[in-house]
Fold:
Amino acid sequence: MNILVLGSGGREHAFTHKLLESKKIDKLYVAPGNAGTNEIATNIAINPTDFEAVKKVVLEHNINMVVVGPEAPLVEGVHDFFLSDDELKSIPVIGPKKDGALLEGSKDFSKQFMEKHNIPTAQYQSFTSETLEEGYAFLETLNPPFVLKADGLAAGKGVLILDDIQEAKAELKEMLTNQKFGAASATVVIEEFLKGIELSVFVLTDGKSYKVLPSAKDYKRIGEGDTGLNTGGMGAISPVPFADNDFLTKVEDRVIKPTIDGLQKDGIDYRGFIFIGLMNVAGDPFVIEYNVRMGDPETEVVLPRIESDLLELFEGVATQTLSDKSFSVTDKTATTVMLVSGGYPEAYEKGKEITGLEEVEGSLVFHAGTKNEDSKVVTNGGRVIAVTSFGETIEEALKTSYNNIDKISFEKINYRKDIGFDLVK
Structure:
């Protein structure tokens, strides 16, 4: 089979690496890809949301399946585009159609979905510029901290958690009337703050059955001890030690099954990944958010732990025979540490040469923000490289990652030295 992976980050490099383990792969293309995918597959320089360009690539290279990495093409309807085109409609797309992608594309839609199908989540209300005063009044009913979420996609930056009610009111006004996050914050969801420990659970579904993938925990803050600004993710660990069988049974019974059943009841034919962001509140799972694709950097620890043929699983999704596919996961722990550009998540420079990658031993190196330039690998983003390692314990896996990080260098390199700090006793 010829496969096209859409996207350019660490998640897409991890997909590419995993898919290449399948004996069914003939040729693998990544659009637009990065320096890492370029080493093992063929990069094609197109924008994943330019659907006509995607169509051209699919037809020129006799693509048999499209795997969508990021959320934007899904929310904008790439799957629907394929189904509405006579030349493309027989080619499976791994990722939901536009109606299913609303689970991530609209916070308001996802909260209504959870409420409708009795899925545990924080209490909330949604507001627009016309109901700003009502938003102020709702804030008065809550205890701090206050959680404000832009309804639409805001590149991971649309969530504010504030301790001061006056600041919360000011930010609500900024979002609704001054378009702080553009059209994404035309509607804002205000919800109660859930106190607990965050984790993510990933599900692959064909719309009827599902496989529960390994749990993971990522670290969003730039600074050690979870301080400083939010980022796209500075590292991740899988499995999550506190997500034992008892907790995961609760997740399956209270969240996963009602989610899959709810999609069916609502007539949404959902085929792809569901990323469920959870809060463990005193042993009970509450849904913070849905995403309609795999997370990054969680993918870099979840996929390497899967022992099954990923392409076979994807074929099961496409043909709704996922329940017939074998699925197994290693017991080993996987950890990943993200190397980022100096200054990230604020202003940073690109084009810094990366050295030492060939010296890495015993770890998987997933490129995120990299590109090839004058026969060198250079930085091309805020998050640059993810270094993933296995171990019997979190400490053992992290030791391997950090030992290998010492061999990698680029100007103003930065990374957290305490990934997993809250999970290691």
DSSP finds 13 helices and 22 strands in the chain. The longest strand covers residues 272-281.
